[in-house]
Amino acid sequence: MATLSHPTVDLSVFLKDGEEEEKKRAKEIISHACSEYGFFQAVNHEIPLELMSRAMELTKIFFALPEEEKRKYRPKSGEPESAGYGKMSAHGIDLNEYILMLPPQSSSNVLPNDPPELRPALEELFNYFCKTGELVESILNDCLGLPPDFLKKYNDDRSSDILTTRRYFPASENDNIGLPQHTDGNFITFVFQDEVGGLEVLKDGEWTPIVSVEGTIVVNVGDVIQVLTNNKFKSAPHRVLKQKGRSRHSITYFYSLQGDKSVEPLPHYTKQIGEPPKYRGFMVKDYRALRIRNRTHPPSRREDVIDITHYAIPHN
Q1: C-beta of residue 128 within 8 angstroms of C-beta of residue 158
Q2: Which H or E element spans position 96?
Q3: Strand, coil or helix: 225
Q4: Nearest-CA neighbor of 269 among 158, 146, 167?
Q5: If you average pLDDT over residues 309-314, what whole number do you get?
Q6: Is the predicted pLDDT of residue 148 greater than 60, yes or no?
Q7: Enclosing H/E stretch for 226
């Protein structure tokens, strides 16, 4: 198995005036990464490294609590993807446990009070990730040659963004999958993992690990971007592998689109360049419901899992 060195971008060049040559070079790296890999890594992203480390350590303390303590923070609603503590299982095997968080102002959040520092740390982290999402969205807008603020106006509501923190259980003799192969159904995803690593990306039929580097966040474009760009930017399949004898921890931010939004290939990548659309249009909430069913009723065969190809238009 090869270890792929995913492109790394210094986001600080976009946070100050001038630096036009550096910005141009960074955009070229991001465009190439999103076209070839669907992933890149970011440094100097303005999320404080101390906050990242502190939030990670606090979540480890929470996940080490007795089961009955953690269950106190189960979702208010029994609906899938509800805010609170839960476990992800497949075919009777517990893959990971998690805390799912909506925007800090949401009344649906069920955040732990133990340890007491965890909730404010996650709320602060959520707000930093939101700002980083807005920055990367604007960079992608430029990389794609779209009109100024096009993506910002299209994706102008942050109420569907989600932050999750997960603990992946150690691998067993018969199972090392922490998160099965999938693509992300949202707009842009940000993740940082602890030193255990485990995140792998499928590239040219081969699984390649993303090496964990302290202070670096991994960025990947989701299915919505792939459809909008008519496959110019890739939403790459990825998975998480577990290690024997060690838990793996990560924190992920899903920069998302509202459920009532319609998604289809943009004219910039179809009519205006003489290309046929590769996808039929769909509502975000409908696609989200299909993806949730993948988790609540896992298909026994990989080919029966519904992903973005569900909306693909066949071409001869």
Answers
A1: no
A2: strand 93-101
A3: helix
A4: 146
A5: 93
A6: yes
A7: helix 223-228
